[in-house]
Amino acid sequence: MLSALKIEWMKVKNYRTFWILLGITLISIPGINYMLYNIMDNSFPKGKNGQTPFLGSPFSFPDVWNTVPWNASILFILPALLIITLTTNEFTFKTHRQNVIDGWSRQRFISVKLIEILLISILCTLVVLLTVLGFGFIANKPGPGISIVHDSRMVFFYFVEMVSYSMIALLISILIRRSGLAIGVFFIYMLAEQIVVGFFGKGHHMKWVNYLPEEVTDMLLPQPYAKALFQRNATDWEHHIPVYLAISALYLILYCLITSRRFVKVDL
Amino acid sequence: MSNILSIQSITKFYGPIRALHEVSFDVPPGSVFGVLGPNGSGKTTLLGIIMDVLRASSGTYSWFGEPPSERQRQKIGTLLETPNFYHYLSGEKNLQIAAAIKGRGRDDIGRVLEVVKLTERKDSRFSTYSLGMKQRLAIASCLLGDPSVLVFDEPTNGLDPVGIAYTRELIRDLAKEGKTIVLASHLLDEVEKVCTHVAILQKGQLLMAGDVNVVLTNEDFVELGAQDLERLRTTLAGLRGVRQLKDLNGYIQLVFEKDAPMDLGEINKYCFDQGVVLNHLQLRKKSLESKFMELTN
Predict the structure, then answer these.
(1) Domains contained in chain B, number
(2) d(CA B222, CA B187)
(3) How many whole angstroms separate alpha carbon B149 and alpha carbon B20?
């Protein structure tokens, strides 16, 4: 598999679009956080303790562990674009066929794409971690008695969510094969699920919407701002984490199986 | 030695369309095997199946006497339909990827680029190549690692006359080296010049397959001329083993039954003994084209 990954690296290392999309994805993580930090810092009056009333201190430890991954997760469309571009390119240039003709098994081809998603997700998660530490230590020095590592698991939840969104992007790419259409379908799916969640979840208080493919991973990262006003019951959320993780894992296994089976079984 | 490729009863449906029906044939080692057929006859579909990019609806095939696997494909140089390369990479970098997938080193890349005369353009992006250059790069990729088996699907597509002649010569040279070549084409002239074996497909059906001399056996005919063609016709009708007599451009075309003798000297003597003096006597081979037209019409 290492040799297959080396070949994948040969494919992308001279591909300018890959570097541009990856660069935008990675820069956008501290970028959007810095933007929101600036808005908060400049637009809302601070109280005596340095906190912003209602919003709290989302960029200080320990809340920064929640804030930075949540902000970064707003832009999951960017790594999805990268995944869709890299995958549909193979179909456009018919190089997926050539790779198989030259001696890769179909399973190997799709396995490399899955590992590629893992690697990109790890990279993004590392940038999220660095951004958390940057804001936590530099922008807002931790006060005495504040736990620095409390809620650091949020970075892992970000990783799960990132892998999940990327896997959906890969699945759509394998099913649709054309880049423009795949991007459109991915975007529409994201919107459609949010509309369903908004309508049935908030309007009708139906819990099943929390277990839809995107929403279940979204549930792992609660909205970090003005927790006192908007956040769901914290104890309830804490209890549900193992369920969200288990269902997320099930979805990931399902995405892997459908993606692999589709690529292995159909005409290329 | 077992067959290089053995195809057994392969059928392929695209929805309700039957692209191949129960196709079976063997490719012996060292042969140049032409897969012939008009456009849409199923040639590319068949090659796609044996290279694992298409799934057969039923039937099996084996390479080197073993069930198909990716390891076998690594040992085969294949050009299927259009050249498929990464447009943003140079010709050389594309070959590096192909060589890595085939499990071969980079040391052969310079040689194959030289063979297809692309050394000067090896650093140019694939997207800047002309159609002919793309096709030549695909041939170079096939030659990586000097494989003993090659599969070419319309290898002269997009090439200019010089390129066509060059590719034909290359295939001949490869055949001389003892390599087994499977060559799909609708250009009969191309196949006739290089193939030792043929399989003829039409609408997904295999019409005929085997040694080119066997497929075309007894398809030779004799062309005769005399001052009195009517008398010549009557005389020839009495000749032993005659299957068909046809008038053709002022001559008579004589086709013998299978296994009947076709000695020009004896025919000349027979006619002379019957009082007919021939002014034209020539043995002609039926071209693959006429055989093909006969089978497919």
Answers:
(1) 2
(2) 26
(3) 24
Q: Does A100 touch chain B (CB under 8 A)?
A: yes
pLDDT at site A5: 93
CB contact under 8 A, A108 and B70: yes
In the numeric block, the tokens 């736990």 are attached to: A147
CATH of the domain at B260: 3.30.70.100
Which residue range(s) make up the domain with A141? 2-265
Q: Looking at this protein, which amino acid is placed at residue B216?
A: L
Banded model confidence at residue A174, pLDDT cuts 50, 70, 90: very high
Indicate whether B186 and B73 sit together in one domain: yes
pLDDT in tens, A239-251: 889 999 999 999 9
pLDDT band at A71 (very low <50, low <70, confident <90, very high): very high
If you measure CA to CA, which chain B residue comes closest to A108?
B70
- The helix (H) or strand (E) run that includes residue B294 is helix B288-296
Q: Is the pLDDT of residue B42 over 80?
A: yes
The least confident of A116-120, B27-31, B184-188, B268-272 is B184-188
**A74/B235 Cα distance (integer angstroms):** 95
**How far apart (Å, rounded) are the C-alpha atoms in residues A168 and A252?**
9
Q: Which of B215, B238, B268 is the last residue of a domain?
A: B215
Last residue of a domain, one of B215, B244, B265: B215
CA A230 distance to own-chain centroid: 22
Q: Are B141 and A102 an interchain contact pair (Cβ–Cβ within 8 Å)? A: yes
Domain co-membership, B138 together with B177: yes
Same domain flag for B104 and B16: yes
State whether B252 and B197 are in the same domain: no
Q: What is the pLDDT of residue B1?
A: 62
Same domain, B206 and B252: no
Three-state secondary structure along chain A?
CHHHHHHHHHHHCCCHHHHHHHHHHHHHHHHHHHHHHHHHHHHCCCCCCCCECCCECCCCCCCHHHHHHHHHHCCCHHHHHHHHHHHHHHHHHCHHHHHHHHCCCHHHHHHHHHHHHHHHHHHHHHHHHHHHHHHHHHHCCCCCCCCCCCCCHHHHHHHHHHHHHHHHHHHHHHHHCCHHHHHHHHHHHHHHHHHHHHHHHHHCCCHHHHHCHHHHHHCCCCCCCCHHHHCCCHHHHHHHHHHHHHHHHHHHHHHHHHHHHHHHHCCC
Using a CB-CB distance cutoff of 8 angstroms, which residues of chain A are in contact with residue B97? 7, 10-11
The tally of domains found in chain A comes to: 1
* Residue B81 and residue B176 in one domain: yes
Residue B5 has pLDDT above 70, yes or no: yes
Q: Are residues B43 and B190 in the same domain?
A: yes
- Statement to judge: residues B24 and B105 lie in one domain: yes
| CB within 8 Å of chain A, chain B residues 185-244 | none
The confidence band for B219, taking pLDDT boundaries of 50, 70 and 90, is low
Terminal-residue alpha carbon distance, chain B: 37
Q: Which domain holds residue B9?
A: 5-215
CA distance B216 to chain A (A): 33
Q: How far apart are CA A75 and CA A70, in angstroms?
A: 10
